[in-house]
Amino acid sequence: MKYLDEYRDPEAAKKYLDLIHRTISREWTIMEICGGQTHAIVKYGIDQLLPDQLNFVHGPGCPVCVTPQEMIDKALAIAQLPDVIFTSFGDMLRVPGTDKDLLMVKSEGADVRMLYSPLDAVELARKNPDHEVVFFAVGFETTAPANAMAVNQAYKHHINNFSILSAHVLVPPAIEAILSDEYNQVEGFLAAGHVCTVMGYRQYEPLADRFKVPIVVTGFEPLDIFQGTYMALKQLEEGRYEVENQYARAVKPEGNLPSQELINRIFKVADRSWRGMGEIPQSGLCLRSEYAKFDAEQKFNLDVDLPVRKTECIAGAILRGQKKPLECPAFGTRCTPEHPLGAPMVSSEGACAAYYNYRNFQQKQKSTPL
Question: What is the domain range of residue 363?
Answer without folding.
Answer: 324-367
